[in-house]
């Protein structure tokens, strides 16, 4: 089942309709749906489709020869000696074709890492052949760092050749919900908190099963498909998977600064930066700074696991792997992976959902009182109370001097007046804005009395509203 990616498909189809040479670069981490997107795009088009493997240059060239022979209707071809010969052959053959076709080079980094000359040879083929054709070329890769430096970077031979680039991101919570069309909102939030927006993980869910059954079968079963997924990905992508595993485990356990992460992971403080940067490039970890501060200059940046599935796995599954392997996964779920700890974890992910909802309505323009141009979260000292505090979601427009402050409350019961007054008291903590708006997001509907008391001052939204 192909879900979402409407904007990306529209962009690719627009490129195809131009009937001239185009080169789209599509990249994003493994399991994010690059191949599914490309397959959906080319399903009604002529396509020369090659996927490189993590094999020797000779193996990939032989496989490419076979694919090219089939596409151009040759019974067989002698193996290409190098990529220059291979690409030149495709250029010559395409010159005799009137019909437009798509040339997909999937997992381009695998081939390029085996032959440093490939980017230069492709650049020559583009400049002296492909650019005068009506071929649409797609380069795709999972190694985001490589794609950004060796394909898109200004030092790359391919710099300036691409006509579009798509860094594929996880699906947002609303699109992810399409995998479970009959699930209730609370169930959908729990599912997104555990599996995130990665299409491959969502596709493994049984839409007829409840959340507990899905997470038990996929993660807390010794035969579960996703039981070892994060550690497998690290082994495939990184040279020192054990150290990266330790870093992620430390962050999942609550370490947020480089110094503390280094201490808890066993990685030296002087070397931790390299590991964090690599995990950021893979889209697994992110560094956030308080709203309004420069990411480059702020010293208050905090690290967290960006991908919900990895955050959930390292928080609840990884510490219990021995028990899971000894068939105690069901007991682990009931005693360790649910309850207060899980509710606290979902509350953190609920903030992400609320921000995604705000991003959506900001585009639509109906529910937002102004056009937001800046987004984030704020934390710091409240000088009036002389204590540390935070604001869950912040949206602002510096030009119009308008700001929206939001509280996200994932609890079944709480003191509504106290919670709302606490939100209102945060006005002014972020300076430079003349008009402040407030939104209060909650797991359950607040009472009519609370709505009436703060009518016109605070907009209240429950989890039900986020899925309407």
From TrEMBL:
GO terms for molecular function: ATP binding. SUPFAM superfamilies: P-loop containing nucleoside triphosphate hydrolases, Winged helix' DNA-binding domain. Residues 313-418 form the DUF234 domain. InterPro entries: ATPase_dom (IPR011579), DUF234 (IPR004256), P-loop_NTPase (IPR027417), WH_DNA-bd_sf (IPR036390). Residues 2-205 form the ATPase domain. This is ATPase.
């Amino acid at each position: 089942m192909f879900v979402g990616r409407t904007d990306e498909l529209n962009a690719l189809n627009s490129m195809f309709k131009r009937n001239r040479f185009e080169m789209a670069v599509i990249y994003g981490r493994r399991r994010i749906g690059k191949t599914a997107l490309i397959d959906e795009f080319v399903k009604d088009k002529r396509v020369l489709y090659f996927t490189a493997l993590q094999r020797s240059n000779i193996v990939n060239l032989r496989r490419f020869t076979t694919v090219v022979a089939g596409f151009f209707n040759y019974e067989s071809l002698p193996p290409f000696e190098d990529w220059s010969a291979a690409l030149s052959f495709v250029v010559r053959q395409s010159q005799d074709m009137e019909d437009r076709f798509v040339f997909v080079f999937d997992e381009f980094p695998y081939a390029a890492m085996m032959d440093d000359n490939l980017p230069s040879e492709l650049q020559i083929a583009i400049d002296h052949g492909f650019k005068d054709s009506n071929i649409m070329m797609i380069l795709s890769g999972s190694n985001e760092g490589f794609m950004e430096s060796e394909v898109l970077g200004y030092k790359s031979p391919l710099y300036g050749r691409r006509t579009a680039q798509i860094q594929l991101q996880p699906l947002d919570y609303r699109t992810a919900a399409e995998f479970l069309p009959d699930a209730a909102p609370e169930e959908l939030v729990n599912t997104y908190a555990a599996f995130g927006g990665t299409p491959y993980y969502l596709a493994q869910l049984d839409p007829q099963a409840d959340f507990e059954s899905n997470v038990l079968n996929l993660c807390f079963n010794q035969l579960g498909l996703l039981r070892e997924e994060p550690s497998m990905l690290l082994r495939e992508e990184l040279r020192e998977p054990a150290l990266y595993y330790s870093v992620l485990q430390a962050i999942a356990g609550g370490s947020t600064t480089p110094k503390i992460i280094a201490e808890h992971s066993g990685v030296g403080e002087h070397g931790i930066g390299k590991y964090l940067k690599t995990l950021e490039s893979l889209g697994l970890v992110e560094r956030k700074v308080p709203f309004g501060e420069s990411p480059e200059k702020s010293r208050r940046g905090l690290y967290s696991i960006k991908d919900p599935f990895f955050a959930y796995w390292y928080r609840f599954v990884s510490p219990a792997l021995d028990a899971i392997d000894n068939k105690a996964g069901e007991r682990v779920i009931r005693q360790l992976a649910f309850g207060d700890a899980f509710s606290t974890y979902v509350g953190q992910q609920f903030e992400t959902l609320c921000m995604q909802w705000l991003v959506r309505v900001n585009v639509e323009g109906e529910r937002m009182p102004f056009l937001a141009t800046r987004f984030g979260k704020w934390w710091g000292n409240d000088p009036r109370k002389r204590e540390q505090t935070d604001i869950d979601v912040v949206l602002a427009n510096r030009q119009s001097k308008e700001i929206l402050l939001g509280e996200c409350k994932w609890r079944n019961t709480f003191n509504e007046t106290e919670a709302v007054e606490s939100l209102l008291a945060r006005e002014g903590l972020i300076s430079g804005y003349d008009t402040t708006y407030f939104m209060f997001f909650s797991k359950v509907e607040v009472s009519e009395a609370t709505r009436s008391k703060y009518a016109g001052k605070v907009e209240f939204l429950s989890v039900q509203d986020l899925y309407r």
